[in-house]
Specification:
Layout lengths: L21 E5 L4 H12 L3 E6 L4 H6 L9 H11 L4 E5 L5 H10 L7 E4 L15 H33 L6 E5 L19 H20 L6 E5 L17 H14 L8 E2 L9
Parallel strand pairs: 1-2, 1-4, 2-3, 4-5, 5-6, 6-7
Helix pairs in contact: 1-7, 4-5, 5-6
Family: Belongs to the short-chain dehydrogenases/reductases (SDR) family.
Pfam family, one: adh_short
Protein name: Short chain dehydrogenase
Length: about 280
């Protein structure tokens, strides 16, 4: 079953008119999420995105929360410039009521692609220095949150399948990391760093595969996609490429996915990553 989510290839010489698909990007206020918002808005998709309201003290203390004085303003400015195809909503991945309310506010719309981008990461340090609270909070945001958003928005994803007559399957994209790979966590590859991030993203990978199996009969595809090593605030501005570079490639990968790709763990360029 072919699963083409848009007819525009962002890297193509000749632009093809995009289908009027609806994309929801969880965590679109910074980094990879914001790059996805910009790219899909520019391509003409119907884009919804979320951000978490937080206090200024939280923004200053947490590597996971963007500076309130910059990024949300960028997101709101983008919405103001694109009122017809961008809608910004609030959603807190640590609050199930907030997630369910956002899904309710979606108001019966169809959803073609759900991209779960929200994540948190701790500082690099020995694994044995990781605290229980840190582990629990990372699992809550990096694994439980995406699971809850997928479940909450599933009726909207099913609506997409019903309205398209089955020729295109709705898609859940969970943004994961190559650091979640058990195979790549080998001697010489700094296996002791970022324990809670690695473990929670590995749990997200298992969640992705399990949901893919359970939703197979519903025609909903689920994939785990790593953006690669990008220069973002969460990565302490260290990386090999700008988020926009990664996202431009990932948009084409998402466009090319087939239903048979469900339950796969892929790099940003579409290459499989070993579990």
């Amino acid at each position: 079953m072919t699963c083409n989510y848009g007819s525009y290839k962002s890297g193509s010489t000749v632009a093809r008119k995009p289908l009027p698909l609806t994309i929801l990007i969880i965590g679109g206020n910074r980094g990879i999420g914001l790059a996805f918002v910009r790219q899909y808005v520019a391509l003409g998709f119907n884009v919804y995105t979320t951000y978490r309201k937080c206090s200024e003290s939280e923004a200053l203390e947490s590597c996971a929360v963007a500076d309130l004085s910059t990024v949300p303003k960028k997101l709101f400015a983008l919405e103001a410039k694109n009122p017809n195809n961008l809608k910004v909503m609030t959603l807190d991945l640590a609050d199930e009521d907030s997630i369910n309310q956002a899904a309710e506010d979606f108001d019966g719309k169809q959803l073609d692609v759900l991209i779960n981008c929200g994540a948190v990461c701790e500082l690099n340090r020995p694994a044995l220095e990781t605290t229980a609270d840190e582990l629990m909070s990372r699992f809550r945001i990096n694994c439980v949150g995406p699971f809850l958003t997928t479940r909450a928005f599933l009726p909207h994803l099913k609506r997409s399948r019903n309205l398209t007559g089955g020729d295109r399957s709705p898609l859940v994209v969970n943004m994961t990391s190559e650091m979640a790979s058990l195979t790549e966590n080998r001697p010489g590859n700094r296996p002791g760093t970022c324990l809670s991030y690695r473990a929670s993203k590995a749990a997200l990978n298992m969640t992705t595969v399990t949901l893919a199996r359970e939703l197979e009969d519903e025609g909903v595809a689920c994939v785990a996609l790593s953006p690669g090593r990008c220069v973002t605030k969460m990565a302490k501005w260290r990386g090999l490429m700008d988020p926009a570079e990664s996202v431009e490639v990932m948009v084409d990968v998402i466009d090319s996915l087939r239903f048979d790709d469900s339950a796969k763990f892929l790099n940003f360029d579409g290459r499989p990553i070993a579990w």
